Amino acid sequence: MAVGDATNGGGGGVRQRQRGCTCTKADFFPEESFSSWSAYGRALRSTGSRLADRLTSRSLDSTELHEVRAQSGADMKRDLTWWDLAWFGVGAVIGAGIFVLTGQEARDAVGPAVVVSYVISGVSAMLSVFCYTEFAVEIPVAGGSFAYLRVELGDFMAFVAAGNILLEYCISGAAVARAWTSYFATLLNHKPNDFRIHVSSLSSDYSELDPIAVVVIALVCIFTVVSTKGTSRFNYVLSVVHIAVIIFIIVAGLTKADTANMRDFTPYGVRGIFSASAVLFFAYVGFDAVSTMAEETKNPARDIPIGLVGAMALTTALYCVLAVTLCLMQPYKSIDTDAPFSVAFSDRGMDWAKYIVAFGALKGMTTVLLVSAVGQARYLTHIARTHMMPPWLAQVHPRLGTPVNATVVMLVATAIIAFFTDLNILSNLLSISTLFIFMLVAVALLVRRYYVSGETTNANRNKLVACIVAILASSSAAATCWGVNVEGWVPYAVTVPAWLVSTVCLWAFVPQARAPKVWGVPLVPWLPSASIAINVFLLGSIDSKSFMRFGVWTAGLLVYYLFVGLHASYDTAKTLAAESAAAKVEDGESKPARGGVHSVEY
Length: 602
Hints:
The protein has 602 residues and is mainly alpha-helical. The chain has a domain at 81-440: Amino acid/polyamine transporter I (Up-down Bundle), CATH 1.20.1740.10. It is built from 22 helices and two strands. A two-stranded antiparallel sheet has the order 1-2. α11 (228-254) runs parallel beside α14 and α15 (340-347) runs antiparallel to α16 (353-385). Residues 1-21 and 589-602 have low confidence and may be disordered. It is found in: Membrane.
């Protein structure tokens, strides 16, 4: 498909905007299904057949890399290196999680064993990093996990994940922005909530209004719209300062260490450790944003593995040392939940140090907001390229080379959530969405390695499906037993061996159908299977109210999909398929056929 074409022919009448960021009906609903009310009525009557088509359809690597990407008109600028990605990774992850949730979980959920919780969450995150890295190297597009799931699990599962990806980014940005306000207040000698407006008529979870968070998000929006490379340089400077502050916290904090504070190491038991791990997974959220920058990376095959894996290894080590430092400085029952490190230094007679801590925390949270803004806009851009969301959101500004529309829309949504919602609600709901998506990416990697359409036999396909279902079922059973607090070890003596047997069967009886071209996850299927098990098990440690909110959100996504997204993406897919076939036929006709038959490889 020629990028310079002004329109797409036939099929669904999907017009492709090439220049500028306009705002017309054709930019939002260019598909044939929305051309008139009668056309929309016909589309609704075909919902069943269209849903069946989308449930079984899978995209191709080449489609995501070329036809879908071309829907943005202008290309994003390729000017990022592994150095940029590594600092984006550090900047994306080290923020509100370590500076806020560490205190909250250490005091109320796990005690000094919070360091063990960070290790468990870090292992889970690293397994997911491996899965993301293989996909990002082979499908270097802005869509991240959305594009990966479209290729391996199909349109429908990709859309469900997409909605939760967008929720994840809005929530994480809102949580960090609210934490920014807390530390800003501390820096100015105020209590964390002093700059928030209390409205008693609202529910207690939504009554602390935060206008400062909204202003911070607006400033981040302006900066990320202007330049990705400029954002990278600013992020690099802030991250270096941030790392220096972290080193100061560790060194200065350990001079005030008291090992007596660690004697009651697990006051809440093993259940507290895993419950805190599920919430602290929030602290690792952000690395997936780096995978969305693959489209802007000069050499994805080299730069992405170094940037992603290196950033996650450094982050995990720093988290564990910081958690130990905090618990050595104060008894866990005395840790402050809003600004734990600042208050810890004040209580230990180093009141001056709280200003350095607050300054460093603000720097870290600012980098998280910057990288989150870059990542969430690129997710939404690629989702809109498939027309599951209005294609107006896919437009890339021809001069700036950034997705302006997607950036602004996502940050407006983030600002609204940040203005109202309490951090505790945000962190729990975020962890559900994140763990769910990471589990799906691990499943998708197994499908990618073990199934190639037209090559894998029906018998091997059926064995693959059975093994994946068994892995998911055994992991879910263990998580359910944990979540409902089943007493005794018997349930786990059944579910853990069941997971092990399922993975062994996949390893022993199903041949791999595809090897990674450049960089691949080691120890397949063990690492992806372990990622599935850990992510699902951590889901079992999250409270029921968060699952209810997650269910309501997912139900809303399905309503939107059945009435809008399904029909828009169906029309677009048919149009792109027709164009691709026509282009191949035209290419074939331009060459002399041999023996009267010309074979075209798709």
